[in-house]
Amino acid sequence: MGLLPIRLRFQNHRSTQLLCASFHFIPNSGYFSQILSSNKNLSKCLPFTLRTRKSVVRALATESASPPAAKMVKAIRVHELGGPEVLKWEDVEVGEPKEGEVRVKNKAIGINFIDVYFRKGVYKAATVPYTPGVEACGVVTAVGPGLTGRQVGDLVAYAGQPMGSYAEEQILPANRVVPVPPSIDPTVAASLLLKGMTAQFLLRSCFKVEPGHTVLVHAAAGGVGSLLCQWANSLGATVIGTVSTKEKAAQAKEDGCHHVIIYKEEDFVARVKEITSDNGVEVVYDSVGKDTFEGSLACLKTRGYMVSFGQSSGAPDPVPLSAIAVKSLFLTRPSLFHYAVTRDELLGMAGEVFGNVQSGVLRVRVNHTYPLSQAVQAHEDLENRKTSGSVVLIP
Ligand SMILES: NC(=O)c1ccc[n+]([C@@H]2O[C@H](COP(=O)([O-])OP(=O)(O)OC[C@H]3O[C@@H](n4cnc5c(N)ncnc54)[C@H](OP(=O)(O)O)[C@@H]3O)[C@@H](O)[C@H]2O)c1
């Protein structure tokens, strides 16, 4: 017995109405055992119809019942903005992919700090309620009509819009998914694509790091930070990283930081001046925001680049032009979504990231995995600075 949505034209001696409802249909019997509808008219009228005009109802329903029953999956939903507790574990409907779309059954889902910004309302979700998440890896389970180039069974990953990866299965635009090389584990891919492409555009486009440069990376043991440090080191830069604890300092060292500063205990500006013999650094990659922004400007050398790409401690205070005029500094507030716009850009960036994993330049630290149903705990840990490396949800 299945649940079938149908549209029913009901006729009685006074009027004709078009009503929508869901019916439990008993196969081979032609009968509906139960009617689910919020429409009061329908619930009043239909028992009468079923008693007296079974054949009419049966004929209409058989014609209209061709669409398959809605597929339900588990997902995390946000109905109101707030703390981690607003992440609710629910059933959601996942439809069939339309033209240009694929349906993907997620194997692993990457958690990113941006998920926290949306949950709190720092960034505005297009709709509320919504399903969070902008990174996942999974298997294609259906392709939309006319789509070529993607097949059922393909292992793909995605990073960015549309939101909705905290789900067992989701619909995605086919041009936003990238194929995952067979040598890369799905959990690694899900914890790598968004963070790795972020490291890629920061180091290779936003400011081009070259041998001999000195770079400062805040939150060096975080998801993006870990990849940034390894990659910057491989490009020949001297890497200075900041972290909050000794354990994170040990990880940052392993990830290629030549100098690690525990910024909760030490004055990072003074330490950078000491390390660079008062010269300062060519570039600061600052994802911490409010707590570090001003100090980061002070760490730069003349004509240095301030790359403010996140705000895990809060939005930085407004910056007067005089603050960057003093050393002819460059200031940018970039977003991955503006660097991976076209299909070619997306494929080029993802290819470089996967290539760096395959060649050993990048070691992906999947330090924390949680069942998808426990996203609340995962968000709590991320916000409370208890995590390092990547955080992944497993459906
Ligand atoms: N612009 C873009 O396109 C783009 C793309 C991806 C990510 N990002 C940004 O990159 C940053 C890192 O993202 P991620 O997902 O990899 O997260 P993450 O770095 O793994 O986690 C955030 C880290 O920030 C540090 N932090 C400092 N002050 C904090 C505070 N008050 N509250 C919480 N954390 C604080 C913590 O490291 P310590 O304990 O060592 O201080 C924490 O582990 C985020 O700001 C994110 O928005 C930007």
Question: How would you portray this structure in words?
Answer:
- InterPro entries: ADH-like_C, ADH-like_N, ER, GroES-like_sf, NAD(P)-bd_dom_sf, QOR-like.
- This is Probable quinone oxidoreductase.
- Keywords: NADP, Oxidoreductase.
- Pfam families: ADH_N (PF08240), ADH_zinc_N (PF00107).
- GO terms for molecular function: mRNA 3'-UTR AU-rich region binding; NADPH binding; quinone reductase (NADPH) activity.
- The chain starts with a strand and ends with a strand.
- It has eleven helices and 18 strands.
- Helix 4 packs across helix 5 (223-234) and helix 7 (268-275) runs parallel beside helix 8 (293-299).
- Residues 1-65 have low confidence and may be disordered.
- Strand 15 (300-308), helix 9 (321-325) and strand 16 (330-332) form a beta-alpha-beta unit.
- The protein folds into three domains: 2-64, no CATH class; 71-191 and 367-394, Quinone Oxidoreductase, Chain A, domain 1, CATH 3.90.180.10; 211-333, NAD(P)-binding Rossmann-like Domain (Rossmann fold, 3-Layer(aba) Sandwich).
- The strands form four sheets. Strands 6, 7, 8, 9, 10, 17 and 18 form a seven-stranded mixed beta sheet that branches. Strands 13-12-11-14-15-16 form a six-stranded parallel beta sheet, with helices on both faces.
- It is globular, with a radius of gyration of 26 Å.
- The chain is an alpha/beta fold and 395 residues long.
- The structure holds NADP nicotinamide-adenine-dinucleotide phosphate (NAP).
- NADP nicotinamide-adenine-dinucleotide phosphate (NAP) binds at residues 112-114, 195, 198, 219, 221-225, 243-244, 248, 287-288, 291, 309-313, 334-336, 382-383, 385, 387.
- The site of NADP nicotinamide-adenine-dinucleotide phosphate has 29 residues, from helix 3, helix 4, helix 5 and helix 11.
